[in-house]
Every structure is written in structure tokens, then in C-alpha cells.
């Protein structure tokens, strides 16, 4: 996962139209990036009680023809949050690759919703990690998820 250069907060134009007022207290622009994740997000993170919480605000680019976030938006958030939890399990960060991702869609996210992905490591070994979690909007659970990751240790 590459580091973002400069400030963790980007301008309104760079962050999909978000301003600092749109981001809940304690969240900072995520420090991982790739061209795909820059388009899929923007993502924000903060330390939670059980691990790192990865979040995004649903914007116009995330909405499908039935006016909810496209399933791929939540699926990508699930993969990002679960893999990031494993990546941050050790220092230096673990290089990981998704082997399996299971998602259960329970509700849709609407334009403007702040959605948070909470992930926990269920089991980790030298070469494999198992994670699970949920994506929520307020008190509503939008998705449950689980994944298996290959840990690409040298």
C-alpha cells in the first residue's frame, strides 16, 4: 500500500466534493492509495476500539440506477477494510493479497450517507489471515463480510 503525499486532507475537488465539514471528527484521509482506490473512495480512517475503521461518504459517482450505492462500492470498501486490518497487524505492514471475499448485502446506502467498515482479524498465521466485519451507516448494518488473505512474507 503506497503512502499518499502531503496532507491527509485533500481539497474539495480532489476528494469527490467533500469538505472537512463532511468528515466526522477523528477521521483522516486514508494513507493508502492506488489509482483505483482514489476513484473508488475517497477513503478515511480512524482507530476504533476493535481495530481500524475505514469509511467513505457516498457520492454521486457511487450511485446506481436505483439510487443506492452500487454493490461494487460496498464490496470494494469491504475488501479495503479487511485487507487493511491485516496489513496493519504487524510493523512493518504485511503485504497481503485477497484469496476469497464473501459479502452479504443487507441494506442499501444512499447519496450522502457516511458508511463505515469495521473489521477484525479472526485468525492469522505466518501465511494466511482470516477476517470478518460489517459495514454500517449509523445503527443500520448494510453488509456483513469475511475474507481470506495470503500474507506475502519474504
Quick tags:
154 residues, Thiol Ester Dehydrase, Chain A, seven-stranded antiparallel beta sheet, disordered N terminus
At the fourth level of CATH, the homologous superfamily is Hotdog Thioesterase
The SSE string, one letter per element, is: EHEEHEEEE
Largest sheet, in brief, is: 7 strands, antiparallel
How large is the share of residues in beta strands?
35-45%
Q: Overview of this structure, please?
A:
This protein has 154 residues and is an alpha+beta fold. The chain has a single domain (20-151), classed as Roll (Thiol Ester Dehydrase, Chain A). The chain is built from two helices and seven strands. The chain has helices at residues 35-40, 71-87; strands spanning 28-29, 44-47, 52-57, 96-105, 114-124, 128-137, 140-151. It has a seven-stranded antiparallel sheet with strand order 1-2-3-5-6-7-4, covered by helices on one side. It is globular and about 45 Å long. 32% of the residues are buried. Residues 1-15 have low confidence and may be disordered.
Amino acid at each position: 500500500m503506497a503512502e499518499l503525499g502531503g496532507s491527509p486532507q485533500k481539497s474539495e475537488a480532489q476528494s469527490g466534493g467533500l469538505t472537512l465539514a463532511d468528515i466526522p471528527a477523528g477521521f483522516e484521509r486514508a494513507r493508502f492509495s492506488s489509482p483505483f482506490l482514489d476513484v473508488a473512495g475517497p477513503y478515511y480512517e480512524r482507530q476504533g476500539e476493535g481495530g481500524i475503521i475505514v469509511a467513505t461518504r457516498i457520492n454521486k459517482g457511487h450511485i446506481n440506477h436505483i439510487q443506492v450505492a452500487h454493490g461494487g462500492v460496498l464490496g470494494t470498501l469491504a475488501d479495503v477494510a479487511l485487507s487493511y486490518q491485516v496489513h496493519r497487524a504487524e510493523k512493518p505492514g504485511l503485504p497481503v493479497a485477497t484469496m476469497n471475499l464473501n459479502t452479504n448485502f443487507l441494506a442499501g446506502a444512499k447519496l450522502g450517507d457516511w458508511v463505515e467498515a469495521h473489521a477484525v482479524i479472526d485468525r492469522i498465521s505466518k501465511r494466511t489471515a482470516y477476517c470478518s466485519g460489517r459495514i454500517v451507516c449509523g445503527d443500520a448494518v448494510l453488509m456483513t463480510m469475511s475474507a481470506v488473505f495470503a500474507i506475502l512474507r519474504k
